[in-house]
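User: Fold both of these, please.

Assistant: Here is the first one.
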Amino acid sequence: MKVTEKAVFSNVSLKTEAPSTAAASTTLYSTLEIISVDLTDRRVVYVAPERFEAPNWMPDGKMLLFNRNGHIEKIPVTGGTPQVLDTGFATRCNNDHGISPDGTQLAISDGSQEGHKSLAYIVPITGGTPRRITQKAPSYWHGWSPDGKTLAFVGERNGEFDIYTIPAAGGEETRLTTAKGLDDGPDYSPDGKYIYFNSERTGHMQIWRMRADGSEQEQMTFGEENDWFPHISPNGEWMVFLTYDKSVSGHPENKDVLLRLMSLKDKKITVLAKLFGGQGTINVPSWSPDSGQLAFVSFQLAPKEDASK
């Protein structure tokens, strides 16, 4: 299959074949894309014949970060060749990572210690030795407070996945959710007043929000589908999230999904994009600094070329 590294689309959806028993005869291609909120532009930044995931947009607007094969890589928004960021001993980074509001630090979730269970660390954005933040495992980073002083993360404690906060400088973790069922994907509003998250406490996954201290938990979406990973635009006007069909449990990879956009002013929801993706598409914040665009990853399964030809 010929791969074109840069392309331009306008208000389109990419259709792909779903996985089958013939998966061994296919190659997975990952595509880093950018789409504008007004749907006037959708373009490809980078394509590779392997899995990479979860873009973050640098605060200066010039670079994107993503994870691949346990490492964090960076690439210009205009495309090019990715470069691996030095994360020291942390070579099992997963797709829960993000950049501090001032752009100087990177939070990563990595399984290089504690029996390969995920822990949250902070690394200089230029690379260096990780500083461990969470002491208990597993822990998965998901959000920075706007003042950079607090991290929001998901932790499994005694078999329950809940949302916690912890000082970025290190310290004691604070549990914010106690409802039965999985709580995941916490991300702060730009004013720091709220943490948005997804929860299955109603029977299936929906978007919720709460005050930054865990109080006043309220439901935001009410559909039959399963909604994951809410992220609020820097200007506070929009919430993007990932939607699976109601028949899908968890947040698996290689599924037909929707990127949906909610106006926080009137709660109206529109479809931003239809794609083949899921796990790794928008697990972490990926808004452009000007709130006009989003970065995400889609996937495609293509037949392997016959080497005998």
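And the second sequence with its predicted structure:
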Amino acid sequence: MQKDKLEKLTEIVMGEAVTALLDSNDKISGATLANRLKSMLVNEANAARREAIEIALAEVRSEFASARDPMESAVLAFGQSVSDSRRKH
């Protein structure tokens, strides 16, 4: 798929996720948006839309700390994996 078409589709699926949150009166946050995109990804059969949803999810995770997985946040904050800091001596 061409890059500009993929970017447009990414914006569309992001808008669909936000609209779904608004329609259901859910709080809009990085975490709720990421969860909605994950739900969309599980149910999507179209390969191009799946790719766009994955890109949108990556963008949300990179912009909103609340959308990141706890392990991912630790790696970004401390530059190491959580398992490294939990080793028993």
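The chain has one domain: 3-85.
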